[in-house]
Design a protein that fits this description.
Elements lengths: L4 H16 L24 E5 L3 E8 L2 E8 L10 E6 L2 E4 L1 E2 L5 E4 L7 E11 L2 E11 L7 H22 L2 H21 L4 H16 L25 E2 L5 E2 L2 H7 L2 E4 L2 E16 L4 E5 L4 E4 L12 E2 L4 E6 L4 H31 L7 H26 L2 E4 L4 E6 L6 E2 L4 E6 L4 E7 L9 E4 L5 E9 L8 E8 L10 E18 L4 E2 L5 E8 L2 E6 L1 E4 L4 E6 L6 E5 L1 H4 L4
Antiparallel strand pairs: 1-2, 2-3, 3-7, 4-5, 4-8, 6-7, 8-9, 10-11, 11-29, 12-32, 13-22, 13-26, 14-21, 15-17, 15-20, 16-19, 17-18, 19-21, 22-25, 23-24, 23-26, 24-25, 26-31, 27-28, 28-29, 30-31
Length: 561
């Protein structure tokens, strides 16, 4: 009975499909519809707090991790002694390198509700913290997950049997199958069918070793089920859950708000200027050519100089007309000097005999000396340059000196500034409470303390200039640097003072602060703020007194999604 080639080809394709079907199941396991995303699961935890401290206990892998923080500031407490009354008896917590405390809790591996009493001794004070822990039952696997696990087990078992078996029988059987297909199809006179059957068989053998080995299962070991992790996340009600370990990493700090009556402030544009009494400029009084001092180099920027130190020299140029006049004057002086010298010589010979009095000789000598001095001064005009000296002690802030440059009278060559004595000049468009100190904020957020020095009586561009001295000026300040000055007004108002780092921008542009409502829970609050000083803002509405508000790490909390 003749054998049809169609069933043979169908059998080969079916074999290829059966061998290659598991190969399509690799990363993601796309077998039909995707499994739903696993919801974030937190480890069992409990919390308790006192007036000064708050404690969070987290059960994981048969151990309890304890996190002890100060209630007002959220600062970690790492020097406490903690004793726990557990279902297995009394246990002493051990301080861990990350600032937490740990103790074994084998009972936490079994589902149930447990009451644990912690005794915390810190700074000579002892507090009791009762904590309720609920250990849930492990969730049963779903039907799809169970079927997939069974399929993986059968596939791995089948692959193991194939790898452990002798490959020779498989090779002989495959060769016989191929030979039978070729002979059968040749007998029917079809030339292309054997080639197709051969290709199908080779592909089946090629896919077979990879049928059960895919990414994550190369060693035949099934993937471990993902365990619940404590991840910071935004809750459906808008609050943010932040585990204590994450709070330690983000260095989240809080402050308890208190209402107070504070002066209203106004922001003024300002810039840093040198103290007029501790700075100076170096200018040339005459025009001339600049030259370096005896050291051979001009002082560079940032060089500290002393008062009276020579910074440069100026050699006045001599014009052609002046040279002609000087030469004519020199000739006249030389002629007069020669006449007086002969007169002096004659008087010296006649003075001993009494023909010439001693007074005449002295007058001639004095006249000769005066002419010689005038001749020497005329020569010095062309030879001695003007020395440019530092008027004060300080640092070279500006320098425009170049060897051979022509300096004009009254033009600045060097500026010397004392970096420890700087002022801020602000322009005020409002009536301020003069005589009060202020603060300034730099572009990078740093603050400066300012002391009021005076205000001008004449307007400058419809504004009143005000001068403040910088207290404890940092060395990196530069003259001309722009700052924002926050000066007090006469008006008073009641509100809450918070650091500027507490206020962040929400998705709608509204100002937000985060309230620490629970040890691991933060809730956003919309607020209205006004400037108070360089480091604080005045919360007018949105938050009341006695609330714990995040002062450090609020920007990082605002990015949690």
């Amino acid at each position: 009975m003749p054998v049809s080639r169609v069933p043979a080809l169908r059998a080969a394709v079916l074999a290829l499909a059966l061998w290659a079907a598991p190969a399509a199941a690799h990363e993601g396991h796309d077998h039909g519809s995707e499994p739903p995303a696993t919801a974030a699961v937190s480890a069992p935890r409990g919390a308790s707090s006192s007036q000064n401290l708050e404690l969070v206990a987290v059960a994981r892998n048969g151990r309890l991790s304890l996190y002890l923080d100060r209630a007002g500031t959220n600062e970690p407490v790492t020097d406490a002694a903690i004793t726990a009354e557990t279902p297995e008896g009394t246990a002493q917590a051990e301080a861990m390198p990350d600032g937490s405390y740990g103790l074994p809790a084998h009972w936490s591996t079994h589902a149930g509700e447990y009451e644990v009493l912690f005794t915390v001794t810190q700074g000579g004070t002892t507090d009791l913290f009762p904590v309720a822990l609920t250990i849930p039952e492990p969730p049963p696997p779903s039907a799809s997950e169970d079927a997939w696990a069974q399929s993986l087990a059968v596939a791995h078992d089948f692959r193991r049997h194939i790898e452990e078996a002798d490959p020779l029988p498989f090779a002989v059987g495959g060769a016989g199958f191929l030979l039978g297909v070729v002979v059968t199809l040749l007998m029917r006179g079809r030339r292309r069918a054997p080639v197709a059957a051969l290709v199908v068989f080779v592909l089946a053998l090629a896919f077979a070793p990879r049928a059960f080995a895919h990414e994550g299962h190369d060693d035949g070991t099934p993937l471990a089920a993902p365990s619940g992790q404590d991840l910071a996340r935004r809750l459906p009600d808008g609050a943010i859950f932040v585990p204590k370990p994450t709070q330690r990493v983000l260095a989240v700090r809080t402050v308890v708000t208190a209402s107070d009556t504070l002066s209203r402030t106004v922001e003024l544009p300002g810039r840093i200027i040198p103290d007029p009494s501790a700075s100076g400029v170096v200018q040339s009084s005459v025009g001339g050519r600049l030259a370096p001092p005896d050291s051979g180099r001009f002082p560079r920027l940032g060089t500290r100089v002393r008062k009276g130190e020579v910074l440069a020299t100026v050699t006045p140029p001599v014009q052609a007309v002046d040279v002609s006049d000087m030469r004519q004057r020199q000739g006249e002086l030389d002629q007069q000097i020669a006449i007086i010298e002969r007169r002096v010589e004659r008087y010296r010979k006649l003075a001993p005999g009494g023909a010439v009095s001693q007074v005449q000789l002295d007058d001639a000598l004095a006249e000769l000396k005066g002419l010689a001095d005038r001749r020497a001064a005329l020569d010095a005009i062309r030879q001695h340059p003007e020395a440019l000296t530092a008027p004060v002690d300080g640092v070279i802030a500006e320098a425009s000196a170049v060897a051979g440059q022509m300096a004009s009278p009254g033009v600045q060559v060097f500026q010397i500034v004392d970096p420890a004595s700087l002022w801020v000049e602000a322009l005020s468009f409002d009536a301020l409470a003069t005589g009060q100190d202020a603060t300034a904020r730099l572009a990078d957020g740093r603050t400066l303390r300012l002391a009021f020095m005076g205000a001008g009586l004449a307007d400058r561009s419809q504004a009143v200039p005000m001068h403040f001295s910088i207290q404890d000026a940092p060395p990196e300040l530069r003259t001309g640097q722009f700052v924002t000055v926050l000066a007090a007004l006469d008006a008073q108002q009641t509100g809450l003072a918070l650091p500027r780092t507490s206020v962040v921008r929400g998705g709608n542009g509204q100002s937000l602060v985060y309230e620490h409502t629970a040890p691991e829970r933060f809730e956003p609050r919309e607020v209205r703020v006004e400037p108070l000083d360089a480091g604080r803002v005045l919360v007018v509405s949105g938050v009341g007194a006695g609330k714990r508000i995040v002062t450090q790490g609020a920007e990082l909390l605002n990015q949690v999604r």
